[in-house]
Automatic annotation (TrEMBL):
UniProt keyword list: Aminopeptidase, Hydrolase, Metal-binding, Metalloprotease, Protease
Protein name: Aminopeptidase
One protein family per Pfam: Peptidase_M29
One annotated GO biological process: proteolysis
Residues annotated as signal peptide: none
Family, similarity comment: Belongs to the peptidase M29 family.
GO MF annotation list: aminopeptidase activity; metal ion binding; metallopeptidase activity
InterPro entries named in the record: M29_Exopeptidase, M29_N-terminal, Peptidase_M29
Cofactor(s) named in the record: Mg(2+); Zn(2+); Co(2+)
Length: 413
């Protein structure tokens, strides 16, 4: 890729200016892998050019992470030191810090590590950093999740290039740039147009206020109730101060929260799920009275069962998301083994927590009040993909009238 450095700079500019939308006086925390330091430096450059007060970094290294899981006992690895909790909470409370997470790395990094250890570490760390998680899910702060390429990830997507590290990595960068509209003459304007398209779908669904969704496809027959006064959201979100940001780049979804008390039937996944350093394939789930009663998988079954049955609220769903099968990511015909991309190629559901922003005045309600409205409360939120070219989705009104939302995997509005 001859103009890679120019494209990487355009990408960094886009993430700072349209993604997390850094403005004068903002503080920014960037979470990024050590192998992606060149991107990190460009992000800092553009953030400071916009007048950021301070850019902080949390560096991650997957080789060290693997060594920690192999050599540190579960209790110590799951422990988040008080100083780290205090620092994170201080940055949220006193700095209203924005968060930019750059995901990358080998989706099978933790293969061979005991499932129980992975689940315990993930669960306890999530609970320890509850303030950060809640501020993010409430949109109290600006936040963005984006991606960076590396060979550990690229070799899974482009298996024919598994012995050509540079070519595989550049092929992945090309897909990231393409799906994030970096190749557009004006990437920010391209995102504004894309936002408007998704907003139109969300506006229709918000006006309809369907009582229930009915999903039908091979291996899937699922009824999902929707809470009263639910809100369908799309690409752009807003803080309480009405400051816009894009939470996921790329994104192709329109989403809301289900009424976790009114879910029944069964559903089958259509894409692999990369979770906790492992790949989970062919997930099958049964629901009764809103709760998961059975979940299996052809690969990674113990991991997904531990997630569901060992975490509070993880037997319920926190998100339903609609994504057209003809979206650019889907049409690439690639499995990315990364939820940020694969969820934007397919209709999906999320095990665990609901976003309070997906119900009217939800950010002003306590967890108990949210639960009374039907929103699921949990320390986890894990998406899995269920869409295909064979999926139909109907909206069902309170009086039982059916209206087509999706036919053969695409919008039918």
């Amino acid at each position: 890729m001859k103009n890679f450095n120019e494209l990487l700079d355009r990408y960094a500019h886009l993430l700072i200016n349209k993604g997390v939308n850094v403005e004068a006086g903002d503080n920014l925390m960037i979470y990024i892998e050590t192998q992606n330091a060149p991107l990190g430096r460009l992000l800092a450059k553009h953030a400071y050019a916009n007048g950021a007060e301070r850019v902080y970094f949390t560096w991650r290294d997957e080789v060290i992470q693997r060594l920690e899981y192999e050599n540190v006992d579960t209790e110590n690895l799951a422990n988040v030191p008080d100083y780290e909790i205090d620092r994170q909470n201080d940055l949220i409370k006193n700095k209203k810090i924005s968060r930019l997470s750059i995901v990358s790395g080998d989706p099978d990094l933790l293969n061979g590590i005991a499932n129980e250890k992975i689940d315990t570490v993930q669960n306890k760390r999530s609970q320890s950093l509850k303030m950060v998680r809640q501020a993010t899910m409430n949109d109290d702060i600006k936040w963005t999740v984006a991606a960076a390429a590396d060979f550990g990830w690229a070799k899974h997507i482009f298996s024919d290039l598994a012995d050509q590290a540079e070519k595989a990595t550049m092929a992945l960068w090309e897909e990231i740039f393409k799906t994030c509209r970096v190749y557009a003459d004006d990437p920010v304007d391209a995102w504004n147009q894309h936002r408007d398209t998704l907003d139109a779908h969300a506006d229709y669904l918000n006006k309809e206020q369907f009582s229930e969704l009915h999903y039908r496809a091979p291996g899937t027959d699922l009824h999902v109730g929707l809470p009263k006064n639910h809100i369908w959201m799309s690409a752009e979100s807003f803080t309480p101060e009405n400051r816009p940001f894009i939470a996921n780049m790329p994104t192709e979804e329109v989403f809301t929260a289900p009424d976790t008390r009114r879910i029944s039937g069964h559903v089958t996944s259509t894409k692999p799920l990369a979770y906790a350093g492992t790949t989970i394939e062919n997930i099958y789930v049964e629901f009764e009275d809103g709760q998961i009663t059975k979940i299996t998988a052809d690969k990674g079954q113990q991991i997904i069962q531990d997630l569901v049955f060992n975490n509070d609220g993880a037997r319920g769903l926190g998100e339903v998301a609609l994504v057209a099968h003809d979206s650019p990511i889907s049409q690439s015909n690639l499995i990315f083994y990364n939820t940020l991309f694969d969820e934007n190629a397919s209709n999906h559901l999320a095990i665990g927590a609901a976003y309070p922003t997906t119900i009217e005045n939800g950010t002003k309600l306590s967890e108990e009040e949210l639960a009374q409205e039907g929103l699921n409360i949990s320390p986890v939120h894990v998406d899995f993909m269920i869409g295909s070219a064979e999926m139909d989705v109907d909206g069902i009104t309170a009086n039982g009238e059916r209206k087509a939302i999706f036919r053969k995997g695409n919008w039918a509005l």
